[in-house]
Specification:
disordered N terminus, disordered C terminus, 20 strands, mainly beta, six-stranded antiparallel sheet
């Protein structure tokens, strides 16, 4: 997939009336705000695809992308050990990247590399590097002042990925933004063909979480001390799914990737090839 298609696809998927963000430089009334704007660079491929690179106080970068009139925030990697020029983009896989960087797989990450002194900018998605042109500072500031800014269009992030002895996968994700992180979804099915389940309730306590479907027949227990399991209920009886120990009320699930926190991007991608692209764009390894 070309870089141009990446920018177009992401903008199309984001069209949902997102709330506007205040520019990082605000109204430019303070010296700090003006310095932030002056330190920000804008790169373009000359085809209305723009990348905004703003240095941050921790020595890394905050990125935005868009068409020059409307920009979207690119979430920064949660792991502070990762290089500041990376951004998560699992729709493109860099087969040459390090697959074990402090335990983190860098293959589903893209990059924006800016050399302000040399005035060069390169955007990488997957195995493809695309050179961008760095706008002159005055032109960049004019474009930035006139543009609008919106939060990342990313809607969901993976929460848990498990597999039972028969090869059925169980994916739990939740809202990506902090205000939506209690909005969970459950997908079940064989590799590459997971189906979304209708949820009715989520119970979370010190022991773990239970995700109940609309019919109340399936519950996923993500326990912090015991193996995770699915519990099937029929006619007020608890029946063990295939592969479970006959004395245990459920089938133990193997962990595919990391269960607590976020599962690995590669594990999710392998298991759920039919997972919507606009949802995978929010997966954090």
């Amino acid at each position: 997939m070309s870089l141009a298609r990446f920018f177009v696809l992401t903008v199309v998927l984001s069209s949902g009336g997102a709330l506007a963000l205040e520019p990082p430089w605000g109204d430019e009334k303070t010296l700090r705000q003006r310095m932030r704007l002056e330190s920000t660079s804008v790169c373009t491929d000359g085809q209305e695809h723009y990348a905004v690179v703003m240095p941050t106080d921790d020595g890394k970068f905050q990125f935005f992308y868009g068409d020059g009139r409307r920009f979207f925030e690119i979430p920064r990697p949660a792991d502070v050990r990762l290089p500041g020029y990376l951004f998560f983009e699992p729709r493109f896989v860099d087969t040459n990247a390090n697959d074990n960087y402090y335990g983190r797989d860098l293959r589903p990450y893209g990059a924006i590399r800016l050399n302000a002194e040399a005035k060069t900018c390169t955007v990488r998605c997957g195995n493809r590097d695309t050179p961008f042109t760095v706008l002159e500072p005055a032109k960049a500031r004019e474009l930035l002042r006139q543009a609008t800014y919106e939060p990342s269009p990313r809607k969901y992030a993976p929460y848990a990925l498990l597999r039972d002895p028969r090869g059925t996968y169980y994916l739990v994700d939740r809202g990506f933004h902090p205000s939506e992180q209690k909005a969970f979804r459950v997908f079940i099915g064989p590799r590459g063909n997971l189906k979304q389940q209708e949820m009715v309730n989520v119970i979370s306590d010190s022991k773990g979480e239970i995700f109940s479907t609309k019919k109340g027949e399936l519950q996923l227990l993500l326990d912090r001390e015991q193996p995770s399991m699915w519990i099937v209920k029929k006619k007020n009886k608890t029946e063990a799914p295939p592969g479970a120990h006959p004395r245990e009320p459920g089938a133990h699930l193997q962990r595919a990737g990391r269960v607590r926190g976020r599962p690995s991007g590669n594990a999710v991608r392998r298991a759920v090839s039919t997972y919507p692209a606009h949802s995978t764009s929010k997966m954090t390894a």
